[in-house]
Structures are given as structure tokens and as C-alpha cells.
From TrEMBL:
Gene Ontology MF: a single term: methyltransferase activity
Annotated protein name in UniProt: SAM-dependent methyltransferase
Single GO biological process annotation from the record: methylation
Source organism per UniProt: Nocardia ninae NBRC 108245
KW Ribonucleoprotein (keyword) present: no
Signal peptide (residue range): none
Organism phylogeny: Bacteria, Bacillati, Actinomycetota, Actinomycetes, Mycobacteriales
Gene3D superfamilies, sorted: Vaccinia Virus protein VP39 (3.40.50.150)
Pfam families: Methyltransf_12
Keyword Methyltransferase belongs to the record: yes
Key words of the record: Methyltransferase, Transferase
Length: 283
């Protein structure tokens, strides 16, 4: 990976790796993730995801940037032969422990996503899955999309479910006295990494260690994501946008009666908070 990026970008990506190493033990013990089984792995899936993915028994699937492997566990339980990949050594270690605790057989690999083809060797997959909160840590989506396409077998499916750039442009986390829907960050890509140096991570639990590295995020508009996939030779088959989130990003959000997820109240503007893209590799 290092040879593909300038030295400053490599430095920021290494800082992100250190930051995720520091926050992973907090996440593993948090009520937010409920990795001990208090929150079912299926909770993290939008209602439409299982329909888009189709039947999983016997299909080989790789979950890129899998973190604790919460979704990866659900895939294995639904019959897929699942592999999880993450750049954080702490994440891979905890994901293995969590899978063992739940009696699920999953192969976890430590690797930067840009090195995934090398790390996974000759393995090619029926499904490449990329889930919520992943793309903002990638400086180059064209290289990412090329990796996704290379990992797919002919006829395979790439499925990306991500926080909508409208949501991310509202800021990383609303302050108690700043709950308005105001744009604070870029929607579109192009102005480089944004540094976040928060004392706490996004889950419950203690503060990050005092020497924890900052974290850096890159904006990616929806058009950039779709175009990167098309330029990598993939065929877009579906694009969804939804106002649902798996947790209440804003204090005034209310439960959706059908999914159990969260949405803004009826009096608020309806805006997309999450999107999904399905893309296939030609047979």
C-alpha cells in the first residue's frame, strides 16, 4: 500500500490504524455493540439488505473493514462461508474472540483494504460486503473499487451500505446544544482529510487513552462512490437511500415501528441518512 500513496497520506492512514487499535477494546466492551450477545448481530442490517443479498448458504463472502465482525457473524449464521478483513490488529484479535464466544467459524485476516488482494491470496468471492462507517477512512475510492472488483468472482456481487454523505456533512457527532440539521462538513470529495481529535469514541465507555492518535476522514459524495465502481468495470444494479439509522444520531429521533431502527420525527425534513449500492461483476 505505501508505494501507492504519498508519505503524508500514509502517515494519516497509519494514525487511523493506531486510533482504531486504541478504540477497539472500548467498543468490544460497550453496550453500543453488545458483542456479548445482548444485541443480535442481525440488528445492524437495514431491512432491505437481506433481500438485496439473496440466499447466502454455500456462498463465499468477504467483509472488508469488518471491525468487531458483528455483521460477519450474521453472515456465517445465515450460511455463508465468511471471511472478515480489517487493518486493526486489535479489531482482528477481538473479532476472533467474539466469534469463538458465539461458536461461529469465521476466518479473520489483518490487512489494509488496499492490500486485500495480496492478503487473501487466490481467494475470490461471491459477495464483497462493505458496511457502515468504512469509506470515510479511505483516501482513494478508485483504488478501493479496483480491489473490490478484483476480489469478486465473475457474476459476483459487491454490496456497500454506508452512512449517507448528507449525514456525514451534518458533522461527526451533534453536541447536546447543537441538534439542528445544519451542514458543517463537506458533502463532496476533494479537499483532503479532516482531522477529528475527540476524547471519546462514538460508543459508551471510558475515554480513549491520552496518547491516542487523532483520526482522519475523507469525504466521498454518492456520485464518487458510484462512478468509482463503474470505472472498475462493475455494473450498478441497485441504489437505495433511506431515512433509517440503527442508533439515534439525534436525540429527537423516534423508533420506526416496522424495523425498530431510528428516524427523524415526522415534523422534520425527510433526508437520506443511509444508502446502499449493489454492483455486479460481469459473468
Amino acid at each position: 500500500m505505501d508505494s501507492e500513496f504519498d508519505s503524508r497520506t500514509v502517515e494519516l492512514m497509519r494514525a487511523n490504524e493506531r486510533n482504531w487499535d486504541a478504540r477497539t477494546p472500548i467498543h468490544a466492551a460497550s453496550q453500543f455493540y453488545g458483542a456479548d450477545g445482548t444485541i443480535p448481530a442481525e440488528w445492524w442490517f437495514a431491512p432491505f439488505e437481506w433481500d438485496d443479498l439473496g440466499a447466502l448458504p454455500g456462498r463465499e463472502l468477504v467483509h472488508l473493514q469488518c471491525h468487531l465482525g458483528t455483521e460477519t457473524i450474521a453472515f456465517a449464521r445465515h450460511g455463508a462461508r465468511a471471511v472478515g478483513l480489517d487493518f486493526s490488529g486489535q479489531a482482528v484479535e477481538h473479532a476472533r474472540r467474539i466469534a469463538e464466544h458465539h461458536g461461529v467459524d469465521i476466518d479473520y485476516v489483518r490487512s489494509d483494504v488496499y492490500d486485500a488482494v495480496t492478503a487473501l491470496g487466490a481467494n475470490r468471492f461471491d459477495i464483497v460486503y462493505i458496511a457502515k462507517g468504512s469509506l470515510c477512512y479511505l483516501p482513494d475510492l478508485d483504488r478501493w473499487a479496483a480491489v473490490v472488483a478484483e476480489l469478486l468472482r465473475p457474476g459476483g456481487l459487491a454490496y456497500i451500505v454506508e452512512f449517507h454523505p448528507v449525514l456525514t456533512s451534518l458533522g461527526p457527532k451533534p453536541e447536546p446544544d447543537r441538534q439542528e440539521l445544519l451542514l458543517r462538513n463537506d458533502y463532496l470529495e476533494g479537499r483532503g482529510a479532516v482531522e477529528h481529535n475527540s476524547v471519546h469514541t462514538y460508543t459508551d465507555g471510558p475515554a480513549l487513552p491520552a496518547d491516542a492518535s487523532p483520526v482522519y476522514e475523507w469525504a466521498h459524495g454518492l456520485g464518487e462512490v458510484v462512478t468509482a465502481l463503474i470505472d472498475a468495470g462493475l455494473i450498478i444494479t441497485r441504489l437505495r437511500e433511506t431515512e433509517l439509522l440503527p442508533w439515534p444520531r439525534f436525540e429527537r429521533m423516534v423508533r420506526d415501528k416496522d424495523s425498530g431502527w431510528w428516524r427523524l420525527p415526522p415534523a422534520d425534513a425527510r433526508i437520506p441518512l443511509l444508502y446502499a449500492v449493489a454492483a455486479t461483476k460481469a459473468p
